[in-house]
């Protein structure tokens, strides 16, 4: 069969569905093509945070602000309950060195407009009574929010569907050609052919494989993250939590941070968030193991051991599931968003690493605006996929 | 008569997450026709029992509604942990021998 559309979006994770939604809202006839089932990629095996505190002042932080605003309007625009919550977040500080680095970082973020502060142990324990005694202070920001990724994806798909967007699953893209008219011709596993003048590569971790089909260089690498899910339990504190350690290693490559074996070999750091289903999501690892998205016993064990050092009280809680997702990571920590030079009509929207849930709405909106040839937003130059074109 | 039928639709197929027959049928009609898809779209089977009770029922409903053979739809694999497990279990030596079966 041959199908024709205005835009073909390859990849139906949260990014592809957001692109499809915003494009179809602007009147484009959109097909979304995915090799897997619903949320089979990173978007179905991740935490749920719209997290501000982890970001340095710059484009990612600016876009997170904009994305949060979009999420707020999506709460009424989409028909699904998005599981939005605004519990705020705390980054846990374990020693003097971390405290100094986090104080400096928080000051930078504040001057950029983020509502965040360092609070002392007493104030910290008031919000989180069950924290281990060895934690000396924490940050606190009331801005950190969350959504349920599954509901957001369903919401984009349902509303996009009402604008004519169609999603085709379990039928991966295997080839892309250009035909006489200049249109792209995309071939899928079952031999179907899809034609359109515009292709959007939103294949997340796999975006490089789609790029190869048109001769584009896309240096996205899978960075595996494992997480566990607890049974439903009552709320154990006011906010979501992260450990400062990983952030500190990212912020200051010049200081030597004391890491244990798991933290070093698996890139382990603690994140604990209360999900909209009243369970806790606890993670996670950062591993470069190719496209292997299995969980490992060593990973699960490391996550739990680490968690119990921060919240010993969780010893008696059951965990009911473990999962792993592949974060699409880029060499400079920024996504690729835009049209490829010399490959007219071929756009990439991928490489969100650990921020794709937070950045999904703004990514879709900006991508739609680029495809519709709105006036160029020069802030986005630093996201251009062409920064990697000549390695 | 219609009343009775409507009541049937409010029956919980997944008791852990309180997902009704109506929600499951809606998901199937929207094109989500594997147990995994239905689970992710409705949360059925995401709760404490991890679908041990409702997976087969969901597969049967999908088979009925789509006319596909049941064997094609039944979920094949379970991942570790196969049942809820206490966090402190990691302190056991045997923990490392747990299998992803
Ligand atoms: C443990 C963990 C925790 C995380 N926590 C957070 C968080 O708290 N907040 C946050 O903002 N982000 C978080 N992330 C990051 C977030 O999950 C990702 O950035 C986001 O899901 C990326 O979305 P995507 O749509 O680009 O990729 P994906 O969801 O991976 O989608 C890509 C899709 O492309 C499809 N595909 C691949 N090849 C082909 C092909 N040949 N043809 C057609 N389709 C194809 C795949 O099937 C897949 O569905 C976390 C990630 C992990 C792993």
TrEMBL record, chain A:
Cite a single GO MF annotation.
Answer: oxidoreductase activity
Q: Is Lipoprotein a UniProt keyword of this protein?
A: no
What keywords tag this UniProt record? Membrane, Oxidoreductase, Transmembrane, Transmembrane helix
What are the transmembrane regions? Answer: 6-23
Q: Does the keyword Transmembrane apply?
A: yes
Source species, domain of life: Bacteria
Q: Gene3D superfamilies recorded for this chain?
A: D-Amino Acid Oxidase, subunit A, domain 2, FAD/NAD(P)-binding domain
Q: Which GO terms describe its cellular component?
A: cytoplasm
- Annotated ranges, domain FAD dependent oxidoreductase: 6-369
Q: Name one Pfam family in it.
A: DAO
Q: Which InterPro entries match?
A: FAD-dep_OxRdtase (IPR006076), FAD/NAD-bd_sf (IPR036188)
Q: What is this protein called?
A: FAD dependent oxidoreductase
UniProtKB/TrEMBL annotation, chain B:
Entry annotated with the keyword Oxidoreductase:
yes
Q: Which Pfam families match?
A: SO_alpha_A3
GO molecular function terms noted in the UniProt entry: oxidoreductase activity
Which segments constitute the SoxA A3 domain? 11-89
Entry's InterPro entries?
A: BFD-like_2Fe2S-bd_dom_sf, Metab_Enz_Cyan_OpOx_G3PDH, SoxA_A3
Name the UniProt key words of this record, in alphabetical order.
Answer: Oxidoreductase
Protein name as it appears in the record: BFD domain protein (2Fe-2S)-binding domain protein
Protein species of origin: Sphaerochaeta globosa (strain ATCC BAA-1886 / DSM 22777 / Buddy) (Spirochaeta sp. (strain Buddy))
């Amino acid at each position: 069969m041959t199908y024709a559309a205005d835009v073909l979006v390859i990849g139906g994770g949260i990014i592809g569905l957001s692109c499809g939604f915003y494009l179809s809202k602007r009147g484009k006839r959109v097909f979304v093509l995915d090799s897997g089932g619903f949320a089979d990629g990173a978007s179905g095996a991740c935490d749920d945070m719209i997290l501000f505190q982890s970001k340095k002042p710059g484009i990612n932080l600016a876009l997170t602000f904009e994305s949060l605003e979009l999420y707020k309007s999506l709460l009424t625009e989409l028909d699904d309950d998005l599981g939005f919550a605004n519990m705020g977040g705390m980054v846990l500080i374990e020693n003097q060195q971390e405290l100094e680095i986090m104080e400096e970082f928080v000051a930078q973020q504040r001057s950029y407009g983020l509502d965040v502060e360092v609070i002392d142990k007493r104030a910290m324990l008031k919000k989180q009574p069950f924290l281990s005694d060895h934690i000396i202070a924490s940050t606190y920001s009331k801005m950190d929010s969350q959504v349920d990724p599954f509901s957001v994806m369903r919401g984009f798909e349902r509303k996009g569907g009402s604008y004519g967007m169609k999603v085709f699953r379990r039928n991966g893209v295997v080839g892309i050609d250009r035909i006489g008219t200049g249109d792209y011709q995309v071939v899928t596993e079952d031999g179907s052919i899809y034609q359109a003048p515009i292709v959007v590569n939103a294949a997340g971790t796999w975006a490089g494989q789609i790029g190869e089909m048109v001769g584009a260089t896309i240096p996205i690498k899978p960075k595996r993250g494992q997480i566990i899910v607890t049974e439903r339990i009552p709320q154990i504190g006011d906010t979501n939590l992260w450990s400062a350690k990983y952030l500190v290693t990212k912020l200051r490559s010049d200081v030597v941070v004391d890491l244990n074996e798991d933290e070093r070999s698996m890139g382990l750091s603690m994140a604990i968030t209360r999900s909209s289903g009243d369970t806790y999501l606890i993670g996670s690892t950062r591993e470069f193991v190719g496209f292997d998205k299995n969980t490992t016993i060593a990973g699960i064990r490391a996550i739990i051991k680490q968690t119990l050092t921060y919240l010993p009280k969780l010893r008696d809680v059951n965990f009911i599931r473990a999962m792993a997702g592949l974060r699409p990571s880029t060499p400079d920590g920024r996504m690729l968003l835009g049209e490829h030079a010399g490959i007219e009509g071929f756009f990439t929207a991928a490489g969100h690493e650990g921020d794709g849930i937070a950045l999904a709405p703004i990514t879709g909106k900006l991508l739609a605006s680029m495809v519709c040839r709105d006036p160029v937003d020069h802030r986005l130059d630093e996201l251009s996929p062409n920064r990697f074109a000549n390695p | 008569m219609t009343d009775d039928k409507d009541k049937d639709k409010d029956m919980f197929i997944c008791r852990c997450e309180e997902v009704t027959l109506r929600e499951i049928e809606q998901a199937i009609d929207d094109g989500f026709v594997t147990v995994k898809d239905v689970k992710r779209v409705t949360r059925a089977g995401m709760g404490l029992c991890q679908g041990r009770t409702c997976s087969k029922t969901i597969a049967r409903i999908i088979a009925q509604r789509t006319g596909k053979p049941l064997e094609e739809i039944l979920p094949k694999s379970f991942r570790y942990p196969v049942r809820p497990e206490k966090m402190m279990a990691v302190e056991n030596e045997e923990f490392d021998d747990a299998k992803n079966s």
